[in-house]
Amino acid sequence: MILSMDEIINAICLHTAERKGVRPTDVQVELSWDEETGYTAEVWVSGRSQYLVEANMIESILRYLNSEYGIRAYREQVSLDLDEEITAHVVTD
Question: Which residues, including other chains, have CB under 8 Å from residue 12's CB and lie 6 or more apart?
Answer without folding.
Answer: 27, 29, 41, 43, 52, 57, 60
